[in-house]
Amino acid sequence: MTPDEFRRHGHAVVDWIADYHSRIESFPVLSQVQPGQIRASLPANPPTQGEPFEALLKDVEKLILPGVTHWQSPNFFAYFPCNASGPGILGDLLSSGLGVQGMLWSTSPACTELETHVLDWLVSMLGLPEKFLSSNTGGGVIQDTASSAALCALLAARERATNYDSNKKGCDGRIVAYSSTQTHSSLEKAAMIAGLGVENLRTIEVDENFAMRPEALARQIEVDKLAGLVPSLVCATVGTTSSNAMDPIAAIGEICGQHNLWLHVDAAMSGTAALCPEFRHLQDGVELADSYNFNPHKWMFTNFDCNCFWVADRKALIQTLSILPEYLRNQATESGAVIDYRDWHIQLGRRFRSLKLWFVIRHYGVEGLQHHIRRHVELAQQFAGWVRGDDNFELAAPVPLNLVCFRHKAGDAVNQAIMDRLNRSGDLFLTHTKLKGNLTLRLCVGQTNTQARHVEKAWERIKEEAEKASVAT
Ligand SMILES: Cc1ncc(COP(=O)(O)O)c(C=O)c1O
């Protein structure tokens, strides 16, 4: 493809994307295809000869679009959001256009330095402790996901707890880590990959609001120490996936301090709320954290994938993950004057992800971002108010931000039927969780273009389907 052809087809693709976003509300939010349907519509063999580009774009429309669940629809209320925005998409396009692989500072200085700079910006934007700044002992790095961030934190914690011996000799089954029963499953996966073993990840009980009980954590650490085990890390969550519960970071951090444990704070979605000073109390105690992460790809308008991960002591992370084969040696690295981000995560190669984050922050400005976050929280709180005021429904958990956990009082079968009917209708997309053994519906407001009318319509549709489901079950 010549640059001129690229320009022509590129314009067509950008037009297609703009049109897609304009007509996104006309599609069923949850894809309605059956398993295997998309593959059955694709040719069995790859083309022997190249095809005209127009045919590709036509097939996206005809063959691919029916199998797309429209995460960018303003009627998407499922899971946690994975929102995007024009500036984010264009930043990502530029990253593809430059095609940079930024494993070392020297393989593209701008890729490293913009990332360091934007992550330093975010420290003050989110009210995070200054120790996370690159000019201090710490620093930030963009990971693909919160799962990778958790794994890196656990690896560094494991090394710190074993005086950097487990990297050399492997784990001996004595290293333990702590999360709550509500912590995201990525911690369990990290314990598997890091060689601790799932049985050595203690899941601490939670209180009536689904937040970790610090006294239970302290007890378990004592028990483990008495048994000759080696406690390494505690993961506390700002906004659990199931119900948006807030672990008490300050109390947990104090316990970590007493036992010299690594405190990792996972704020995957709710971390974005800290852009607004009035929500920062939810992360009180974050100054005690050894590492912290949040996903701009969830709620901060930066298209997937983009996780921001900070450590207080970058030396511990680098000592854990650094390997320098001869073929990567270079003068800048030897000088010690640069960051080589390959030492800050699992993989070697890396994309120029900070471009999209930089574009998003510059396009909206801090006040623009705050405006949208506040609006999402306001809409979710309004929805929670409607649930509270309806005799047939009840809230199933506190609503600190933009996730509402609620249920119809008639029980699991009715709630399942409400959700299935709504999702089949394509009008909106909701998902569920189980809280205190009961099937619970979750409505999360965080899609970039969700407005009051979408949330109002969602509530109307929920009540409509609830009536039908109550009659049918
Ligand atoms: C609290 C929390 N942590 C971690 C994750 C995992 O996110 P990722 O897909 O970025 O690994 C999620 C996903 O929803 C989450 O809610």
Whole-number mean pLDDT: 97
The counted number of beta strands is 11
Largest sheet composition: 7 strands, mixed
Determine the strand fraction and express it as a percent band.
5-15%
Strand order of the largest sheet: 1-7-6-5-4-2-3
Q: What is the H/E string?
A: HHHHHEHHEHEHEHEEHEHHHEEHEEH
Overall, the morphology is globular
Quote the distance from N terminus to C terminus: 58 Å
What ligands does this structure carry? pyridoxal-5'-phosphate
Rg (CA only): 24 Å
Helix content: 40-55%
| Poorly predicted regions | none
- Output the number of helix runs: 16
Q: Specify the structural class.
A: alpha/beta
What secondary-structure arrangement, pairings included, does this model have?
Layout lengths: L2 H20 L14 H4 L12 H12 L21 H13 L10 H17 L13 E5 L2 H16 L4 H4 L5 E6 L5 H8 L7 E4 L9 H13 L3 E8 L11 H11 L2 E5 L24 E4 L1 H4 L7 E5 L2 H8 L9 H5 L18 H35 L4 E3 L7 E6 L3 H14 L5 E5 L2 E7 L7 H21 L1
This protein binds pyridoxal-5'-phosphate.
Report on the structure:
This protein has 473 residues and is an alpha/beta fold. Helices cover 43% and strands 12% of the residues. The chain is built from 16 helices and 11 strands. The strands form 2 sheets. It has a 7-stranded mixed beta sheet with strand order 1-7-6-5-4-2-3, sandwiched between helices. It has a 4-stranded antiparallel beta sheet with strand order 8-9-11-10. Helix 5 runs parallel beside helix 14, helix 6 packs across helix 8 and helix 14 packs across helix 16. The structure holds pyridoxal-5'-phosphate. Pyridoxal-5'-phosphate binds next to helix 6.
